[in-house]
């Protein structure tokens, strides 16, 4: 049995299922808690079910995977022939998922390299794909981690939301930023920077926010060269598809362009109406 390098990520990478299967990437799910019911992202709760719960103002929280979930995953991959494991996760500034993976890695039957990518959504997904593509060519775990870090360094995630209240409740932004977003109908454009969510710009209306989002993406692509893009949304498919069409026509990128709805974990912190773009240099 060959001793290969296995790639693990978590459910917030939002990789298309076909890509996860093709590249043999294993995903460990985070949990969404609706009221007193804990549900695994991706299998037990959909983005649409989350949207309906939030519109009904049901209490929604999220939680990291337990270290035991990672331990079971690592043990299973070792039993299947993995000699090393690279485990890539969303920003430790946003979740305790990385910490849980580190705890499990200490007792794993094979060496596990746990990486805080500082990313989320397809910014994390593109990192996982970079690792998988590297190992498919015979890269070691160290080389795969280097490929991940190279991908993450230039990656950007920009997004706008209908309200900052969900991010405030989840502790992902401060109360002052949330107040700013509600004052005078300001629609902030947010950015994932240094692993945390930060205010990028202030725009007056949703329409102007989407137009400015497009401009910011175009600026990023002009600086980065060949890129992969992902347009994410929650309950805003029409806006996301239109934005993706404009970006494809305007940029003519030769890389991948994905359009997808985020899962329940990210959706719980952004709320319906999210539209975001990930720019990931190749």
From TrEMBL:
UniProt KW DNA damage keyword: no
InterPro entries: DegV, DegV_C, DegV_domain_contain
Family annotation (Pfam families): DegV (PF02645)
Alphabetically ordered keywords of this record: Lipid-binding
Classification via NCBIfam families: DegV
Name of this chain's protein: DegV family protein
Gene3D superfamilies membership: 3.30.1180.10, 3.40.50.10170
Keyword DNA-binding: no
Stretches assigned to coiled coil: none
């Amino acid at each position: 049995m060959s001793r290969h390098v296995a790639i693990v990520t978590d459910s917030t990478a939002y990789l298309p299922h076909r890509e996860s299967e093709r590249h043999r990437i294993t995903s460990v799910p985070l949990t969404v808690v609706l009221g007193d019911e804990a549900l695994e992202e991706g299998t037990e709760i959909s983005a649409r079910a989350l949207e309906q719960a939030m519109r009904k103002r049901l209490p929604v929280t999220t939680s990291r995977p337990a270290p035991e979930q990672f331990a079971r995953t690592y043990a299973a991959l070792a039993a299947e022939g993995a000699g090393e494991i690279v485990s890539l996760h969303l920003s430790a500034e946003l979740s305790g998922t990385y910490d849980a993976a580190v705890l499990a890695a200490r007792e794993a039957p094979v060496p596990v390299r746990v990486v805080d990518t500082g990313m989320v959504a397809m910014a994390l997904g593109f990192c996982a794909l970079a690792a998988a593509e590297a190992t498919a060519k015979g890269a070691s775990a160290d080389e795969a981690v280097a490929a991940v870090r190279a991908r993450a360094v230039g990656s950007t995630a920009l997004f706008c939301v209908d309200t900052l209240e969900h991010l405030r409740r989840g502790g992902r932004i401060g109360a002052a930023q949330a107040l700013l977003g509600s004052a005078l109908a300001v629609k902030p454009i947010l950015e994932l920077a240094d692993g945390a969510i930060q205010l990028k710009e202030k725009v007056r209306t949703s329409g102007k926010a989407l137009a400015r989002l497009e401009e910011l993406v175009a600026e990023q692509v002009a600086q980065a060269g060949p890129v992969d893009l992902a347009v994410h949304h929650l309950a805003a498919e029409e806006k996301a598809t239109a934005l993706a069409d404009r970006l494809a026509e305007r940029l003519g990128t030769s890389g991948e362009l994905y359009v997808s709805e985020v899962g329940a974990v990210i959706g719980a912190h952004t709320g319906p109406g999210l539209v975001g773009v990930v720019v990931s240099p190749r």
